[in-house]
Design a protein that fits this description.
Elements lengths: L3 H10 L11 H10 L9 E8 L9 E3 L2 H11 L10 E2 L9 E3 L4 H8 L3 E8 L7 H5 L12 H10 L10 H9 L9 E3 L15 E2 L18 H13 L4 H24 L13 H14 L8 E8 L8 H25 L6 E7 L18 E7 L7 E2 L22 E2 H12 L3 H7 L16
Parallel strand pairs: 1-8, 1-9, 5-11, 5-12, 6-7, 6-8
Antiparallel strand pairs: 2-4, 3-4, 5-10, 9-10
Helix pairs in contact: 1-8, 2-9, 4-11, 7-13, 10-11
Protein name: Tat pathway signal protein
InterPro entries: DUF1501 (IPR010869)
Organism: Alteromonas lipolytica
């Protein structure tokens, strides 16, 4: 018989993926045990792609009519994309007068085929505001408007006036999730995050190959015996409150990791080719988790992936085209993978970012702004459209609160509510997870079927 210490060591080290421990029939019984009845009769997934640093979306979606482009070029100066390089969008509405940055060619294909839309000028708000009220000091504004950490928290929490303790996806999972489920509804490829944190639900973190091992128990590490000995004592004799809780956490982590990795071994080999980028590799793992959602008994899944580098105060003309190309390539490959799986109608991917950036150039880049444009992709998206109102791109307009910072005309709350309604929340549940939603005229922006 294997000694307890050796069992713990091998079990926890085996969380790296397709090791021999996971290939046994007892491990596949975990998958069978996870499959049981659930109140949902369909499958849906939301995938948030968070662009850390603040995407300059004013250089992503660009006016192409003569007056609009001339205003854009005059304001943006050295950052303006040449008109002849802009990729035209085919749309009967806004799209006929707007185009995309040349690095977003795959996004143009998704938009023109009806699989993607843009949501214009979204930002963190507590209530609708305008320039006059802001300048007169009569507007209730989110605190720390141009701070990275605060604005990321505001986007993810949906309650900017309160301390950030939970996110709207976490509160959504509190309402819809199964407390007895073996695996959290919220799955992260970018570590812990506020957006997926609820009062009862926490995100389960994944690595590129699935559930990660507990690094301190890797057999390659010199301190393995000491760690295994500690866990051995925790599992055998200690009965303190700390010991009991720690024992439960370690055992649950091991069981859940085995469940995830064993299920991933059942995923079909996708023919879709994913680019060799960080974002695309995260999305490839998401596609695999979606492919095995039935084995995991997860009729609802929420994924968080992230991509850094968007804080383009300098070197923007070199850095942003590379960032946009990585974003577009990853989104296109992921959508094609959902089509291959026959689940494109059931999966919706959307972008979020700290904030937009300033209209004006600082000479080599842009500074922290406020409102910005977002992308939504999926078979259930009312594609080929630009939703909302595009801002004027001239300085000191009614859309410019000062220093080229655009005032949002759509709230994160409205954006989130449109996605959450499609996901399955009722009207009352929408207001429960987004308490500021009542301050805005529309709780459905209409970009989801």
């Amino acid at each position: 018989m294997m000694q307890r210490r050796e069992f713990i060591k091998r079990s926890l080290a085996g969380l790296t993926g397709a090791g021999s421990l996971l290939a046994t029939s007892s491990q596949f019984n975990l998958v069978n045990a996870a499959t049981n009845t659930n109140s949902f009769t369909d499958y849906k997934a939301l995938v948030c792609v968070f662009l850390l640093g603040g995407n300059d979306s004013l250089n992503m979606l660009i006016p192409t009519d003569n007056p609009g482009y001339q205003a854009y070029a005059a304001t943006r100066q050295n950052l303006a994309v040449p008109l002849e390089q802009i990729i035209n969008l085919q749309s009967a509405a806004y799209g006929s007068a707007f185009g995309l940055h040349p690095s977003l060619a795959p996004m143009a294909d998704l938009f023109n085929s009806g699989a993607a839309s843009f949501v214009a000028n979204v930002g963190t708000l507590i209530e609708p505001v305008d320039k006059t009220r802001i300048l007169n000091g009569r507007a209730l504004l989110p605190p720390q408007l141009f701070s990275h950490s605060d604005q990321q928290n505001h986007w993810q929490s949906g309650i900017p006036q309160d301390p950030a303790l939970t996110g709207w996806a976490g509160r959504m999972a509190d309402l819809l999730g199964d407390s007895q489920a073996a695996l959290s509804m919220n799955l992260s490829l970018a570590g812990s995050n506020l957006w997926q944190t609820g009062n009862q639900v926490l995100p389960f973190a994944l690595g590129p190959q699935g559930a990660d091992a507990i690094v301190g128990l890797n057999p390659e590490h010199d301190w393995l015996n000491q760690n295994a000995g500690f866990l051995d004592r925790i599992h055998t004799g200690a009965d303190t409150l700390f010991a009991r809780e720690y024992r439960q956490i370690v055992d649950r982590t091991r069981r859940t990791g085995e469940l995830v990795n064993t299920s991933l071994m059942l995923a079909p080999e996708l023919q879709t080719l994913f680019p060799a980028t960080s974002l695309a590799q995260q999305l490839q793992t998401v596609a695999k988790m979606i492919a095995v959602q039935q084995h995991l008994n997860q009729p609802r899944q929420v994924f968080f992936v992230a991509m850094g580098g968007w804080d383009t105060h300098d070197n923007q003309l070199i850095d942003q085209p590379l960032l946009l190309a990585e974003l577009a390539g990853g989104l296109q490959a992921f959508y094609q993978a959902t089509e291959e799986l026959g689940l494109a109608q059931q999966v919706t991917t959307f972008t979020a970012s700290d904030f937009g950036r300033t209209l004006t150039s600082n000479g080599d880049g842009t500074d922290h702004g406020w409102g910005g444009h977002q992308i939504v992709v999926g078979g259930a998206v009312n594609g080929g459209d630009i939703v909302g109102t595009m801002p004027a791109l001239t300085l000191d307009s009614n859309d410019d609160m000062g220093d080229g910072r655009i005032i949002p005309t759509l709230a994160v709350d409205q954006y989130a509510a449109t996605l959450a309604r499609w996901y399955g929340l009722s009207e009352s549940q929408l207001h429960e997870i987004l308490p500021n939603l009542q301050n805005f005229a529309s709780a459905d922006l209409g970009f989801m079927a």
